[in-house]
């Protein structure tokens, strides 16, 4: 039997959180001229540590292999850009940022966030390991270093004289296999009174809303406030504030500083910690129950698609997100049930979804096909997508979301 250890505390992992079978990497899209190419499939099996309660996957491919050439560009979501703009406004006011300040964003992608600080004449630095994505930011005039963040790179940045007032890390903490090295980098680069803000999908919302499709190989960890507090404390950092966010199905924004910093703890920290205890995140039952929810959702989606197919109805998809690839591969849905999907990103159009080989087209393909149902794969953006594609209703088409359970949007 293979020995699996917790990536934070080293405890042997024995408790299953969700076993989604064998799937390809969720962002490893296939070029249309490579339809006969073999794909590697890996176990998508999430465990929960019985000691520290970190929900996690095993590492089958290194971050270098996964993220060096990446097809996720943050700027193609209007709602995410709005979220980023609001963050820049809030941080600028909350921490009195100005032209003498410095914002460093880890996993800065295509500059989607830092552009809003630049518009306020606040100096910025992006850190992004995916060279193809970083180039987009650099071409837009956003200073960006192409590297993986951790203890070694943090020391190098500190030697270069970078002293960030704010280190922002949105939806990246879950993507790092060596979480101790990553958070250790924060502790090194952060000045004495600096602040780290980290956003991540809240594992409590994942469980309550049955968001099992947000489990994929690029997400090594699934985090609660308790777990993040423990990891940060291990590296001399203190969580002093937290906000609940609607993004990605329900996220937390954690504010952390050095343990001896002047920043005072807010009541929100204790409140969220109590929510987690009351929900049972510190015990086993809630994790065991989740596994059955996953199976029930698979059956419901297949029943809907099979019924539509047998009734002569046409179903297509909207979006090509990582979560959609987890869902479709786990449920065994191919082009025979979902003819194609569409995506606004030109980088994905013309490609095939990994594993299922469902074609990805431009959004206009929906207008030409006039399907009976549009399955929204990035269900966290359902309102934005329904508004963008409201023409679907003109021919009687309807929108469907698969999570937390299959439902038709009336």
UniProtKB/TrEMBL annotation:
InterPro entries per UniProt: Methyltransf_Zn-bd_dom_put, Methyltransf_Zn-bd_dom_put_sf, MeTrfase_14, SAM-dependent_MTases_sf
Membrane-spanning parts: none
GO molecular function, one term: methyltransferase activity
The keyword Transport is assigned to this record: no
Keyword Transferase: yes
Domain C-methyltransferase: 246-404
GO annotation, biological process: methylation
Occurrences of domain Methyltransferase putative zinc binding (ranges): 6-67
Pfam families: Methyltransf_13, Methyltransf_14, Methyltransf_23
Keywords: Methyltransferase, Transferase
PANTHER family in alphabetical order: BLL5978 PROTEIN (PTHR43861:SF5), TRANS-ACONITATE 2-METHYLTRANSFERASE-RELATED (PTHR43861)
Protein's UniProt name: Methyltransferase domain-containing protein
Organism this protein belongs to: Enhydrobacter aerosaccus
